[in-house]
Amino acid sequence: MFFALWPDEDVRQALLRLQQPVHGRLIPPEKLHLTMAFLGQQPAEALPVLLDILHATHVPPLQLTVDCYGYFKRPQIAWAGMSAVPAGLLAAQGELMARLEAAGFSAATHGEFKPHITLAREAKEAPADFSGVPVLWNVQGLALVESMPDGRYLPFAQNR
Q1: Cβ atoms within 10 A of the Cβ of 118, count?
Q2: What are the φ and ψ backbone dihedral angles of 141, each rounded to 5 degrees?
Q3: 117: β partners
Q4: 119: CB partners within 8 A, 6+ apart
Q5: What is the mean pLDDT of residues 63-86?
Q6: H or E element that contains 51
Q7: Three-state DSSP class for 150?
Q8: What's the CA gap between 92 and 46, in Å, rounded?
Q9: pTM to 2 decimals?
């Protein structure tokens, strides 16, 4: 399970266009998202607490301007992100992490929060400099998402 910003269909299609110059194993369109906190496998009894955290976490109205590419050398991930991350996004993610920690959850972090949308895995090189039209994403709230055994991502609940 994980908490994520989940794009609507228009934003998803715009994000899909950002994959065009990217090499590697492209992420299917229905899986494009921005992870706020990764929880891994969770027991069924954790669900009510996670839902409480979802509904208690305040995500202000945000407009994300996805206007740059990035690359994580290990594990070879090409991604799209923001050259200017809104303070409200950082505050919402900090609040979410604090609520998870207070409830006894250990959300996986890989150092400082680096908001991004994974575009491709097994990318052997970084994408070229961003030259396309930025994607404007009006965030509609936070989602609790389940990673299904068949590989699909299923938004379980959202706070809007």
Answers
A1: 19
A2: 125, -175
A3: 80
A4: 15, 18, 19, 22, 24, 26, 27, 32, 69, 78, 79, 80, 127
A5: 95
A6: helix 47-56
A7: coil
A8: 21
A9: 0.93
